Amino acid sequence: MCGIAGYVGRFEPALLGRMNRAQGHRGPDGSGEWHDAQAGLAHVRLAILDLSPTGAQPMADASGRVVLSFNGEIYNYRELRVRLERRGIVFRGGSDTEVLANLLACYGAECLPWLNGIFAFAAWFPAEQKLLLARDAAGVKPLYWASTPTGKVFASELKSLRGIPSIDWSLDPEAISAYLTLLYAPGELTPAKGVRKLLPGTFAEWHADGTSRSGTFVPAHYSQEIQPFKEKDAIEACRHYLGQAVRRQLVSDVPLGGFLSGGLDSSAIAHHATKALGDAARYPCFTIGPAQLAGLSAEGFAEDFPFAQRMSAHLGTSLQVADFDGRAIDDLDALVWTLDEPTPDVAAFAAQAICRQASRQGVKVLLSGAGGDDLFTGYRRHFALRSERYWGWAPASARGLLRRGFATSSATGPLRRRLAKLFRYADSAPAERLASYFLWIGQESLSPALSPLLRESMGTHRPVDLLRRSLDGLPAGVSRLNQMLHLERAHFLADHNLNYTDKMAMASGVEVRLPFLDPDLVAFSERLPDALKIRGSESKVVLRQSMRGILPDEIITRPKSGFGLPLRQLIHGTYGARLSELARSGRLDATGLFSGEGALELLEADRRGQVDAAYPLLGILCLESWVRQFAGR
Which residue, among 423, 495, 529, 424, has the nearest Cα to 186 in the 3D structure? Predict the structure, then answer.
């Protein structure tokens, strides 16, 4: 688990050292560089497998046909190594990197579908004068790239690309709008017009002569047929696949542990991990307690902590309470710099606190429950989608009455806001209505806080259209629920949750693994009928049933609790004061993105309960910070 960077083209090799230093926090255990006349590779190392020098990178295969810079873990590397040994390959060490280098030398991009892991890598083929880039199917590991007149560059983090001449750092209005309304920029987008992300499950080949090609190495989401599982069989299969996923991801030459919120997902993983390890002491768990929130209300954590304690006692694991400094949340500049992107989600602070605590305890690998909601349901919008059975069949004119009625209601409070959000796109086409559930605020509510220039440059682009277009890649006949779960995995998970988790974990010298994203478990979830995912008021039906009699009942039946900090308290406290200062000093207007006066009006409307704008308001603060730190404006 590391940081990678490099180029194809006419760059000075000294660039490699600068790129390594910019993301050196990703690799505290070593660094390396390699270059020839046409390409360069850089690497910083967090040693997890084969801690010896034979695991150092960039690494060549046995024949010298490939030079590799690799970030990630290949969980099935031992099986793949046996395959190579049968071909006569002789290995120097025991790392998964060496296995991957030799796989690429023997098979090229053909081997990509065989990899079970989390990864982003760059492999240079000197004889063919080409660079192969690839990113794992779930998008766990990030990979940014840019084109310049001199050639192409790539890195694990945006900050490694700063200072490279001719990269266009002007702001992408489509991405800016998405950060404010979705909390993330979907797909290839980044805040900078000249920098893109390699999509999950795809590869790109860059040739020294300037030609390139790209493609995908994983099937489309929900391309398998739904199977008529008997519920008992589905429950047994779910238990099997999750246990198998956890066992696969326990491979490590360093101490590991896990996140433990006391929710179903992290508790199920903790159970399977302690069972596989055979010793609960080998799986320390980490959480945050209410006492760590330093004067803030315990929004989320007050509910979580007693359950985490109960689950830890049940399993016999230790439970480490992260040392969370509540003052850290005031430093949004540090948040934005670490995340690389203007991600407006203070849950990232909690993830960072847990990873730092694990690192202090010598734990370099943590298993996370992220992904359970995205495979098996669990978010509030999944229930909102299910509510369409009561009104979605009505004529558009009747649905328009619902939209207008709640939009013009003078009532305030959380329930009114949720109903207004539910019906905001009630009379829209089905795909647009489905995508709209991911929006935190409507464009009409946000618009006054934006500068006239930004509104004009956005033109007819709408963030909801980015998600709607993503649905076009699904096979015909995919259910509405699975369409929503596709958007969860392709965007909310990959572009948001996994991105901030990776950046915060790697800044702390910790690798986070996600058993729910194991390809066999993912494929199983795609074959499940909707009724085994959500039924009435119960989400994760088959997952819950698979843990009955194994986990305590109060863990299985507890409602979902958000993993975050009390943002609404902050937005009318510390963050609101900061927003007011920036608006009144003219700084918001100076970004060219915002109207300071309009932002203050939005803050007041949120205070009155007329609109739920806490996340968009945080987005304004994060974007101002990003523009200043990355774009130099």
Answer: 495
